[in-house]
Amino acid sequence: MAENETLECITEHERILQEIESTDTACVGPTLRSIYDDQPNAHKRFMEKLDARIRNHDREIEKMCNFHHQGFVDAITELLKVRADAEKLMGQVTDTNRRLQEAGREVTAQTEEVIRCRIQQRNMATTVEKLQLCIPVLEMYSKLKEQLESKRYYAALKTMEQLEKVYIPRVSQYRFCQIMAENLPRLREEIKEISMSDLKDFLESIRKHSDKVGETAMRQAQQHRTFNSAVAKQASMGHYTKPVYSLNGRTHTPNGQLMDDDTGDEEEADEEILTAQDLVDFSPVYRCLHIYTVLGDRETFENYYRKQRKKQARLVLQPQANMHETVEGYRKYFNQIVGFFVVEDHILHATRGLVTRAFTDELWNMALSKIIAVLRTHSSYCDDPDLVLELKNLIVIFADTLQGYGFPVNRLFDLLFEVRDQYNETLLKKWALVFREIFELDNYSPIPVDTEEEYKLVVSRFPFHDAEIEKQDFPKKLPMSQSVPQIYTQVKEFIYASLKFSESLHRSSTEIDDMLRKSTNLLLTRTLSSCLQNLIKKPHIGLTELVQIIINTTHLEQACRYLEEFITNITNVSPETVHTTRLYGLSTFKDARHAAEGEIYTKLNQKIDEFIQLADYEWGMAESDGRASGYLMDLINFLRSTFQVFTHLPNNNNDHASMSGKVAQTACMSACKHLSTSLMQMLLDTELKQISMGAIQQFNLDVIQCELFASSEPVPGFQGDTLQLAFIDLRQLLDLFMVWDWSTYLADYGQPTSKYLRVNPATALALLEKVYRGMKDTSKKNNIFSQFRKNDRDKQKLIETVVKQLRSLVNGMSS
Fold first, then answer.
1. Where is the Exocyst complex component EXOC6/Sec15 N-terminal domain (predicted)?
2. Is 645 exposed, middle or buried (0-12, 13-18, 19+ CB in 10 A)?
3. Which of 220, 406, 477, 806 is the most exposed place for a label (fewest CB within 10 A)?
4. φ, ψ for residue 451, nearest 5 deg
5. Is residue 598 domain-shared with residue 660, that is, in the same domain?
């Protein structure tokens, strides 16, 4: 066993030694570690084995050194012998090299010179060749700079295009070309910015000059219209029409079509015709359009231009706050708008697609709506008809000008109808003041005419014809007052003023005739009627003035047919035309006359009330004075003198006579009825508690005077005792008390043949109670024992019985 273990150990150590000898030193560690991991004291045996192996190698090294030692010694000996020859050879080579270097130094210098010259020659040839390629690039770039300095931007863009596509690609490898290529986009942007700046200056310029452009266009349009009017008057000379104005290089003919300007051989203009180009420099917009087109950014330019023009349109359409105060404000407003659209029309036809017809139509529709709204608002503030008329003329010229450029203006002419209504309103207000002044200055007396010339002067102003007055000798008086011919003349002036607005509206004679008649109707039915109604209601207008007003309205009513003839002569439209409007003056003057008549009745009644207020009856008097009251006699005298005034009413023919009689009769009947009613109310006044029979007798005397006045026929034309019937209620009531015929009254009450048919039981009862209280009071004052007198007692019993019966009648009526 021990021997086997020893063998294994020796074999293992041998393997380890071989591994150490054949293995890299870095890997020896694990091998050595395995020695210590084996049996105890194994490393000692390994160390012994290792020492033995070292001694073995030392012996092999020594044997080898001993074997090669002699050869090494021989080699060293031979080397020492060669050393001297080598040093000699080295000296010879060094000398030869030195002599060779000295001999070839000059050749080397010349050779290097030749090489350097050939290199320079090659470089020069290459440089010339490259310069021939670069010089055109530099020349083009220099040309580009010059074009930019001279602001020839469109040519500069063309030069840039050649540089980029032709020249720079040939020499793109050079840095200066790269710098050029890098600068070209920047230069393009600069050109765009400069062009845009020029465009902004152009937009600012046309905004400033649009007023002048519009003024020129509207002036030439007005000349055009004047020329057409002259041509129409000379139609017999042929159909030749001469263009009057030319804007944007196009001549506008009367029918709105365009003609080329090369027809100048037939034109002999008296004054220079200005065009839009004469007033505005359009080159910036052309240049900018070309530049953006070349740069491929035309759409951006178009959008910007249109956006800016829309903004300018809104600014142009914004009116000044006080524009309505003067015609210059309106003229400046229209000039700016016309100038704006004249420029747009020029741009539309001078450029291709910068603005389109659809865009200009959109702008015009937007502007038209704004213009109409502005004019509608500002014209409503205007109260001067002359200013409204000038505004109308401006609108017509404005519409004609833009219509010449193809813009639809029908809505503007429709607006003129609204302005016409406003014009008529201002005319009506103005003429209302005129009528008021005429009425205030009128003396409401017949017009005195002393000579034939004065008569003809009045007749020339007012269509008055009366055969009887014409037969009278001078001096004489015309029935109407001075206001009648003045009113008639002013109505004709109003028709002329209204006609002025209808001029140049492109309307037919029938339409103009209809306008004139409608406006005249408004003047008569509203303005003049209102003035007459206000005049009639004025406190200072007395009965005499009211009578004269009735006369005046009668003559004005008769003159209405002459006004219709006047309008017909102006418009040449036959009054028999189906749609011809009639004048309503007849109803106006009839209404005024009726109002005057009503005012006469009212003033008469007011005057009667004033006299009634002067009544001072002594209701407790024992006996009457034997004569009528003073206030009543004054009242009757006043009525007599008043009704004499009605003799001045027009009665030159049967119609006037019948009208005169009717008014006088109605006034007289109204006055008598009012007087009767007032006297009855005086008797039945609730504040009057008692009445004596003496007072009844006095009152009866006053009523008798009223009846005498009625029977004296203060106004002719009443049949029988018609006027006296106004006092029938008073008469029957007073007769009942004067006769004391109560038995008859009560017995015949309700019978158609009753003597006291008009006496109401309630009225009789009220008055009887007042008389009864008056009798009782009088009896007490006269004799304290009068109540014991038989007659008085019987009378009191009778009154009490009558009172009871009257009360039963009153209660029966109420039930």
1. 49-218
2. middle
3. 477
4. -135, 170
5. no
Whether 363 maps to a domain, the answer reads yes
Of 536, 568, 602, the last residue of a domain is: 602
Handedness of CA 699, 703, 706, 708 (dihedral sign): negative
Whether residue 216 is found in the same domain as residue 283: yes
Tell me the C-alpha distance between 341 and 399, whole Å: 12
Q: How many domains does the chain have?
A: 4
Q: How far apart are CA 649 and CA 600, in angstroms?
A: 13
Q: How many CB atoms lie within 10 A of CB 761?
A: 21
Residue type, 724: Q
* CATH number for the domain harbouring residue 577: 1.10.357.30
Claim to verify: residue 76 and residue 209 sit in the same structural domain: no
Phi-psi bin for 269: left (phi > 0), alpha (psi -120 to 50), beta? beta
Q: Give the span between the Cα atoms of 318 and 374, in whole angstroms.
A: 8
What are the structure tokens assigned to 320, written together?
A: 């000044």
Question: Six-digit token pair at 154?
Answer: 């469109």
- Can you tell me the distance from the alpha carbon of 423 to that of 500, in angstroms, rounded to the nearest whole number? 10
Instruction: Enumerate residues 6+ apart whose C-beta is below 8 A from 639.
Output: 604, 668, 671, 709, 714
Task: Determine the straight-line distance between the first and last CA of the chain, rounded to whole angstroms.
Answer: 175
The series of mean pLDDT values per 10 residues for the chain, 815 residues long, is: 65 76 69 66 76 86 82 82 83 88 84 90 86 79 78 76 76 77 78 77 78 81 71 48 38 38 39 60 78 78 84 83 79 85 83 82 87 82 81 84 85 81 85 90 86 86 82 82 89 86 74 81 84 84 80 83 83 64 69 81 85 85 82 87 67 46 79 89 86 87 88 79 84 86 85 86 85 72 51 72 83 71
Question: 355 and 440 share a domain?
Answer: no
Same domain, yes or no: 730 and 647: yes
Enumerate residues 6+ apart whose C-beta is below 8 A from 176. 134
The radius of gyration of the chain's CA atoms, rounded to the nearest angstrom, is: 67
In this structure, the answer to whether residues 655 and 784 fall within a common structural domain is yes
d(CA 346, CA 354): 11
Same domain, 641 and 744: yes
HSE-CB of 783 using CA atoms within 13 angstroms: 6
Distance, in Å, from the CA atom of 111 to the CA atom of 103, rounded to the nearest integer, reads 14
- Report if residue 253 sits inside a domain: no
pTM of the complete model beyond 0.70: no
Return the pLDDT at 1: 54
Domain that holds residue 199: 174-230+276-407
Q: Which tokens in the block code for residue 667?
A: 């006034």
Grouping H, G, I as helix, E, B as strand and the rest as coil, residue 457 is: helix
- Identify the domain boundary among 578, 602, 626: 602
> What is the Cα–Cα distance from 650 to 731, expressed in whole angstroms?
36
Strand order in the sheet with 246-247: 246-247, 250-252, 258-259
726 and 775 housed in the same domain: yes
Q: In this structure, what CATH number is given to the domain that contains residue 751?
A: 1.20.58.670
Q: What are phi and psi of 157, to 5 degrees?
A: -65, -40
Cis ω before 539 (30° cut-off from 0): no
Under 8 Å between Cβ of 179 and 137: no
Q: Residue 281 and residue 235: Cα distance in Å, rounded? A: 40
Answer whether 664's CB lies under 8 Å from 657's CB: no
Residue type, 657: A
- 658 within some domain: yes
Element (H, E) at 576: none
